[in-house]
């Protein structure tokens, strides 16, 4: 078996799920943006990008929980076979030493965390619009709050 190919395919699959979560974040209501009406952030995905890149103080626990819930929703709709396949690409699988393949909540938790990590990685590494980069570079909220 070619593990490099398998690893690449699993990363692509996680990336697709992360993109689905990002599409959901872009559709969250604008009222969820916590920075006021004069904030140039257009959607909740831009809030995630902004917070990840600036470490701006925010009640991140609530946001993190909501994003993880979104990830979990996709995982719960996966077939058992797809969950097992995605689990094979995780560190938990490498460390797993039992004979039977696990299933259920522990596997779903692992996959949810993996998708969440892919979403956060995308927030840190994606190409962003110039207006958003300018907002980040200018220290964003400090400028608005001044």
Number of helices: 8
- Enumerate the spans where pLDDT stays under 50 for 5 or more consecutive residues: 142-146
Query: What gross morphology would you assign?
Result: elongated
End-to-end Cα distance: 59 Å
Fraction in beta strands? under 5%
- Note the run of SSEs as H and E: HHHHHHHH
* Rg value: 18 Å
Largest sheet: none
Structural class: mainly alpha
> What is the strand tally?
0
What's the pLDDT, averaged over the residues?
87
State the helical fraction: 55-70%
Features:
mainly alpha; 146 residues; disordered C terminus; 8 helices
Task: Describe the structure in your own words.
The protein has 146 residues and is mainly alpha-helical. The chain has a domain at 3-32 and 60-128. It is 68% helix and 0% strand. The protein has eight helices and no strands. It has helices at 3-27, 44-54, 60-76, 80-87, 91-95, 105-125, 130-137, 141-145. Helix 1 packs across helix 6, helix 2 (44-54) crosses helix 6 and helix 3 crosses helix 6 (105-125). The longest helix has 25 residues, at 3-27. The radius of gyration is 18 Å and the shape is elongated. The termini are far apart.
Fold topology:
Elements: H1 3-27, H2 44-54, H3 60-76, H4 80-87, H5 91-95, H6 105-125, H7 130-137, H8 141-145
Helix pairs in contact: 1-3, 1-6, 2-6, 3-6, 4-6
Please outline what is shown here.
This protein has 146 residues and is mainly alpha-helical. The chain has 8 helices and no strands.
